[in-house]
Amino acid sequence: MENSTVTLYIEFNSTVNQTLTKMPQNSLEVQVVTILLALLICGVGIAGNIMVVLVVVRTKHMMTPTNCYLVSLAIADLIVLLAAGLPNISDVVASWVYGYAGCLCITYLQYLGINVSSCSITAFTIERYIAICHSIKAQFICTVSRAKKIIAGVWIFTSVYCIMWFFLVDTNEKVYADGVVVKCGYRVSRNLYMPIYFLDFTLFYVIPLVLATVLYGLIARILFMNPLPTNPHDRIGHDSIHQGRSNNAVKLSCKSNKGAMSSRKQVTKMLAVVVVLFALLWMPYRTLVVVNSFMNPPYLNTWFVLFCRMCIYMNSAINPIIYNLMSQKFRAAFKKLCKCKQPRPEKVTKYNMPVYYSVMKDSSHESPDHDVTEQEDLNGCPIPSKKVNFMDKCNDTNTAFSVA
Fold it and tell me: How far, in Å, are 328, 351, 360, 385, 396 from residue 400 at the CA level?
């Protein structure tokens, strides 16, 4: 009787174990959606961020302090897309295929890219604040050399900070009734991981967003609430020492200041959009982790987890699109990079009478894809060029030529 009871108990446990240990698999819909979205977002993001790096590095007038921080952000986004987006494609179809070393390195690179992108956003936010609200100090502080030093410090700090992930992750093998599944997961328990996560959450999400909110509020007060006067009479009194200056010079100066202010507003709006998208696209994942820290069992809906991941990949892919839509300078540089240059035949123009070079502009360097210069970008409009209009027939040798 006792033996039969033991036999029934063993058979019951084996039946339960076979039911509980069946290998879990993602549905076909989840696999297809994940692969298509990941390939699309990562493909666009990788191409766009590479273009950002190339146009800034290869174009002399694009090498500004703000653009140096954008290059750092682009490299960080590339790391996120390569280390998080592409491995997710294989992970959703099968088990972890990159081994123990791949688990350590890929996890390290994921957090490195995420943290560097957050620090780069904080850096260009502070740089914009100094450049606009403290313009005199900005001439000595906001330089390309100083920006490169700050970027190097950011990468060194985050590289050292993320070393801890080499000791927090490991590969886990779980045997099921119909196979073995290998996962790259955390080595420590949830209770030990929670303080580390909240430290990471505070340093690289909460503090950057609070700082950005305060600084962009101060920037908006300068740019939009206290704009520079555009009327010459508001800036120069009737008894001013500049009264001897011609009216044309005064109007040109005011127009230049107005263009510079417009350019500053455009750049600030673009960077503010980058910060807002960073906050919004990271919010689902950050909220999910915070909620799961206090829930047992955690909320791991497959479609919502997929949505959170795609938001992270989209945040790393969308910045080059924002630059192209909101910056005329980046748009022109992107067009020049994508356009294949072909040799153009030289035009030989014949004139019936001598023309002095002093009244002509050499047209051999003009092209439809001429870059916007630094001065043109600051003024908000291109510098007008001189053109010479000649009459087809000149009966009188004393005819004066008109120069537009």
Answer: 39, 15, 14, 20, 9
Q: What is the mean pLDDT of residues 255-275?
A: 78
- Complete DSSP assignment for 204-264: IIIHHHHHHHHHHHHHHIIIIISPPP--HHHHS-TT-TTTTS-HHHHHHHHHHHHHHHHHH
Cβ(245)–Cβ(226) below 8 Å: no
Task: Give domain 28-228+263-338's CATH number out of 3.30.750.24, 1.10.10.10, 3.40.50.720, 1.20.1070.10.
Answer: 1.20.1070.10
In percent, the amount of the chain with pLDDT more than 90 equals 46
Tokens of 6: 């033991």
User: What is the per-residue pLDDT for 296?
Assistant: 81
Asked if residue 384 has pLDDT above 80, the reply is no
Q: How confident is the model at residue 223 (pLDDT cuts 50, 70, 90)?
A: confident
Residue at 190: amino acid letter: R
pLDDT tier, 227 (very low <50, low <70, confident <90, very high otherwise):
low
Query: For the ranges 2-16, 51-65, 242-256, which has the lowest average pLDDT?
Result: 2-16
Each as own residue / partner, the long-range contacts of residues 146-151 (CB below 8 Å, 24 or more positions apart, any chain) are 146/65, 147/65, 147/68, 147/69, 147/123, 148/68, 150/123, 151/68, 151/69, 151/72, 151/120, 151/123
Could you report how far apart the first and last alpha carbons of the chain are, in Å? 114
Left if phi > 0, otherwise alpha if psi is -120 to 50, otherwise beta: which for 289?
A: alpha
The residues spanned by each domain of the chain are 28-228+263-338
- Residue 179 pLDDT exceeds 80: no
